Each structure stands twice: as C-alpha cells, then as structure tokens.
Amino acid sequence: MSSRALITGSSSGIGFSYANYLKNKGWYLDLVSENKERLKKSKENLNYENASFHSEDLSKNESIKNIVDNFQTPDLIVANAGVAINGAIGQLSEQEKNDAYYLMCGGVIDLIEGFVPKMIKNGGGRIVIISSIGAITAMPKSSIYSSIKSGIYAYGKSISAELKDKNISVTISLPGYVRTEAHKRAGLDHLEKKIPSWMWVNAYQVVKETEKASKNGKTEIIPGKVYRFTKPFLKFKSAISIWQSITKRN
Ligand SMILES: NC(=O)c1ccc[n+]([C@@H]2O[C@H](COP(=O)([O-])OP(=O)(O)OC[C@H]3O[C@@H](n4cnc5c(N)ncnc54)[C@H](OP(=O)(O)O)[C@@H]3O)[C@@H](O)[C@H]2O)c1
What we know:
Order of helices and strands: EHEHEHEHEHEEHHEHEHH
Distance between the termini: 50 Å
CATH superfamily: NAD(P)-binding Rossmann-like Domain
Bound molecules: NADP nicotinamide-adenine-dinucleotide phosphate
Mean pLDDT: 93
Helix content: 40-55%
CATH class: Alpha Beta
Low-confidence stretches: none
Number of domains: 1
Radius of gyration: 17 Å
Shape: globular
Strand content: 15-25%
C-alpha cells in the first residue's frame, strides 16, 4: 500500500515541489492551500490522480480542526504553508501578526498535536516542518517572521526528542533564500536583484535535502551548501553585518 502525505502550502514554491517529488515516488497526497485560483493551477500543473486538493485558510483554527477531524491520518506531514511577512517594529496590525503566528506556528502545533496520537496508533510516521534560517539569524524589519520561525523551530526540536521512542521522526528544515513566489508576494521584489545569485537555493534542492534528512531521522537540516558553510560564521559580528547589509529590507 502506498504511503500518504499531507502537505500544507502546496500550490507553489517548496510545497508544490514537495508534492511533485512525492508524486514521482507514488505517494497519495492531501494538498492544502487557500487561494482557489492558484489551487486550480497547481492541480493542472501537478496532474496527478492520487492527489486531493483542499482549500483552507490555515491562519484560522477552524481550518486546522477540520483537517484533523476529517482527513485520513498521514504517514508524513509537511508543515510548509507560510508568508514572508515583513515590517519594521509597530508596522504590522494585530490581525496580521495573529494570522501569521497561527499560520506558521500555532496552527502547525495544533495540526501536529491533532495527528500525533493517530500516527502513534498507526505505528509511526514522519513530520517535516519548514522553518527558516531566520529562526537562528537576526532579521531586522522581519522580526515577527523570525520570531515565528524560531518558535516553531524550538517546538520541533523538543517534540523530536519527545517522539524518538514512538517511531515518529521530526525534522525541521531551515532554508535560506529560496527561489519561489514568496518574496514577490510580500512586496520584497528588491531582494531578488539585491541578493547575489549564489545565495539562492531552488525549491527542488530544499525538498531533496529535507526528505533525505527526514528519512535519516535527522532533527534539523539547513538545505544548500552555501548556508551550511555560512552558518558557523553567523555568530561573528563582521559576518552578521555583511549578511544584514546584503539582505536588508527597504
Ligand atoms: N522562499 C524562501 O526564501 C523561504 C526561505 C525560508 C523559509 N521559507 C518558508 O517556506 C515555506 C513555503 O514558502 P515558499 O517560499 O514556497 O512560498 P510560496 O511559493 O509563496 O508558497 C506559499 C504557500 O503557502 C500557502 N499559504 C499561504 N498562506 C496560506 C493560508 N492562510 N492558508 C493556506 N495556505 C496558505 C500558499 O497558498 P495560496 O496559493 O493559497 O496562497 C502557498 O501554497 C514558508 O513557510 C516560508 O516561510 C521560504
């Protein structure tokens, strides 16, 4: 029997690439995104009979409740949906902050906590959380995003240890700059020109390295050689100031 994966944020970027990767391995897929037009396009592009497409606003807890109550229990959860929310201190509204926190942190926790007892009952599985290198790096003018990604990273690390003897692996992926639609959608187009090409990783690379890490039971992975090389330097003042000038938000 084929395995079943639940992927959030599957209409584009890393989530779509994950769906495509698992399609090629014959998985059954439950794919969740919100925007109906984009969902339809992704359905046409994926062109896969063993995939079900669902439109849910994952920044709302009733959507997560619906998924946990009604979807088949997955063997793999890929908690990926997200937005590159950005803004200087005080610029984001209460609503924007709450929605982003639930979409990329609180809702991910509710989704995982909703399914873990059922996964244990089924004998185990894998959980992948797409966080960001922003979880471990200062991101001026994206402090809310960085704190959200940091929160879900801490949660993932703790449950990874907690679930070790339950046959459930938890892997947190911390990508750097990935060529997707995220920056354009967040009004950060200038980064596409400003950030040198060697700092961009493609979505397929993120998926390939993240899947490998998950299958090997690794708790975290920074996809892309360039970021693995850079990470140890990010504790030095001079490296931090170079990083921040390259990635500066307008
Ligand atoms: N791109 C990067 O440089 C980068 C770096 C580090 C981490 N990440 C993380 O990677 C993940 C995927 O981002 P991406 O770069 O692949 O961006 P993307 O191409 O913009 O894809 C984002 C996905 O999330 C979905 N989504 C957004 N808000 C949603 C909501 N309220 N309810 C349901 N689905 C929602 C989108 O669906 P709709 O079609 O409905 O909008 C889309 O499928 C995010 O968590 C992001 O923070 C990205």
